[in-house]
Amino acid sequence: MKVYLSHSKKMDYINELYNPIKEAFFLKEEFYFPHEKSAESLNGFDYYKQFDVVVAEVSHTGTGIGIELGFAYALNIPIICFYKKGTKYANSLNSVTDKFFEYDSIDDFLFKLYIVIEKRYHLTIMGLYHMLGIPEHLGKHMLDTAAVCYLIASNIVTSKYNLMNIENIFGKVVTSFDRIKYLNEESTLVKEMLLHDVGNLIKLQPYEIETDLTRWIRDYLDKKSNGDEHLATDFICKLFYFTDEQIERLNLKNLENCVNVANSNDICVKIEAYADQRVSSNGVVSLEEGLKELKNIHSKDPKATLYGKKVDKIIEAAFKNEEQIFEVCKLTKEDINKETIEQISKELETFGIWEN
Fold this sequence. Notes:
single chain, 2 domains, alpha/beta, two-stranded antiparallel ribbon, Rossmann fold, five-stranded parallel β-sheet, elongated
């Protein structure tokens, strides 16, 4: 892929753009640096036809940038804009692209540049996992949890409690497992659960890291989120165009919020929380088995959710939530097992997580 780098000459583009991009071992594309040898702008309209994408640093306005982006827009070349935190890009740029990314450091810029460039090659969830260096066990957990979520949501049969029905949840009625591959981002719950634990990248141990890229991403995200895997998940999901509502739902479904989930009328939160609790380190298990495993893990950490006096209330709420879900679902809890989930999980590997 050939990438044209557009920028203002008002910035220190050699040290702030050119050198960092050249030194980023994970950026494999062919970048063209227009002012590497000369500050003059000599390129005409036809010159830009050779490029696959234009990346523009738009913290500073400039006539030259406007002309270059105008050429790219006329040639239907994708335009991706970056701007420094605390600056404001020109409103006129909204007429040529809707892809704008704020960054607060060089590492932040490089990470986001890597994602938006690489996503043109990897449009499925497995491609995303590969891009981020998600280890197999973490990817499998998110796939299985999304599969549980899908199976339950696609079998909701009543609007008791004024809960959403399947048309609201997925944006379309899906009646066959074979059609899961055709679901797109309208499948809100599936998309959310496919990334719900992505921030756990920062918890990877050295023996789990296979590449320098994964190590760099882990260290970057750890610093970006101050060591909080939930904040790391929020950050990544926002980068992949999750709405504020989706981010809030992912945070609400966490185990520590289980009592509120059981008292909620939001079927989406209920299903997501339950799906997460049904998938353990050994795959799909009963709710009782899943909570038992979590309780054993948490028993050694006073800061953990399932520790101390609050444990009984959380477990009681989890079973209450399970009972409520199956009051409005034509499945039984036994229908959710390793065999049924494995089939859906495999299909979900081709799930399209974003637009090209």
